[in-house]
Structure formats: C-alpha cells, structure tokens
C-alpha cells in the first residue's frame, strides 16, 4: 500500500511579500511570472498624478542634457559635434588653424575701427579708412586661399590623396573667426601644429 504524504512533506505556501522579497534578492525557486503579471507590474499611467511636477522634472532633464551637449561640443567631443565638424580630417583642420595666426582673425576689430573712422567728418580720413578696410579684406582672402592649398597638401600626405575631403570652406570660416569665439573651442596652443 502506498504511503500517503502528510502535511509536513508538502512545501509551505509563500506569502506575496516573501515572494517579492526573494525575487528582489535575485534568488530562483519560484515559477516565472506570467506575461499578464509582468505587464501589470510595468504599467504606468499615461498622465502622471502631478502634471506640474512631471513637467518640471522633464524640463530639468532636458536642460541638463542640453548643457551636457553644449559643454561636450565646446570641448570637441565627437559625439556632441554637428556633422560638419566630425571626423579626423576636420579635427586636423581645426587644430592646424588654431595653431597658426590667421589675418582674418582681426578682420572684425578692423571693421569696427573703420566704422568709428566714418564718424570723423573729414572725407580724407573716411576714404583712407574704407581703402584700408578693402586692402585688409583682400589680404585676408589671399591668406585663406593659401591656407586651403596648404591644408589640402597636408591632408593628402596624412590621410591619402584619394581620401581628402573638401575642407577649404570649413577652414576659411574657422580662420576668419576670432579665436575666443570659435566652436569647438581651440584644443591646441599657438604654434602647436598637429603631426
């Protein structure tokens, strides 16, 4: 005759709290919860209870991510840069331009000085100021054109002639900006040319 199991041989039923505590600790020994139970545990309301607080938290998270992206871009981190600034060739161009002095860097201060000169009632002074501005502008353009040729040669030597991107316009726009206003910020000092 078969022996009947008594009540001491059966495992005791766990309470819900005990099961949840055991699952939080990561121990096995319980059946996998059903899909319905898992979905019910993940459900969150579409609209939070306190909408003002939720909006405030969302704005804070967005502001924090924007600040992180702004700092990352200023520091030249690749993942935060816009597409026009990404890649090793663009980094080389930025470092080369930041290492040298470009005539175009002082174009804005010269233009401001010419504007001040136009307020002087003397036509000779105004004419000389405008003439000097055009001469300076021509020198800046020549400097940028020469810079484009130099950079194309250096990029071809470093990355291969068949892989050189068109960077003349990119280089010109960076060379014509004041050094403190450039983004991403200069990562090299004057005279520290990239290898």
UniProtKB/TrEMBL annotation:
Chain intervals for the UniProt region annotation (Disordered): 1-71
UniProt entry keywords in alphabetical sequence: Membrane, Transmembrane, Transmembrane helix
Domain of life: Bacteria
Matching InterPro entries: DUF3043
Segments of skewed composition (Basic and acidic residues): 1-12, 40-71
Membrane-crossing residue ranges in chain numbering: 101-121, 127-151
Keyword Cell membrane: no
Name of the protein this chain belongs to: DUF3043 domain-containing protein
Species annotation: Agromyces neolithicus
Lineage, broadest ranks: Bacteria, Bacillati, Actinomycetota, Actinomycetes, Micrococcales
């Amino acid at each position: 005759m078969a022996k009947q199991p008594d009540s001491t041989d059966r495992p005791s039923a766990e309470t819900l709290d005990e099961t949840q505590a055991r699952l939080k600790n990561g121990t096995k020994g319980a059946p996998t919860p059903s899909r319905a139970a898992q979905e019910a545990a993940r459900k969150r309301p579409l609209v939070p209870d306190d909408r003002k607080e939720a909006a405030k938290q969302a704005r804070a998270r967005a502001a924090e991510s924007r600040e992180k992206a702004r700092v990352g871009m200023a520091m030249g981190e690749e993942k935060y840069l816009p597409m026009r600034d990404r890649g090793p060739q663009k980094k080389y161009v930025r470092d080369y331009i930041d290492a040298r002095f470009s005539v175009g860097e002082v174009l804005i201060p010269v233009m401001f000085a010419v504007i001040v000169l136009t307020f002087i009632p003397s036509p000779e002074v105004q004419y000389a100021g405008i003439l000097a501005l055009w001469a300076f502008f021509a020198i800046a353009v020549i400097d940028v054109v020469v810079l484009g040729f130099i950079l194309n040669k250096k990029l071809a030597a470093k990355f291969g002639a068949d892989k050189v991107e068109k960077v003349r316009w990119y280089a010109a726009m960076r060379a014509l900006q004041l050094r403190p206003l450039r983004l991403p910020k200069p990562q090299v000092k004057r005279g520290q040319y990239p290898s």
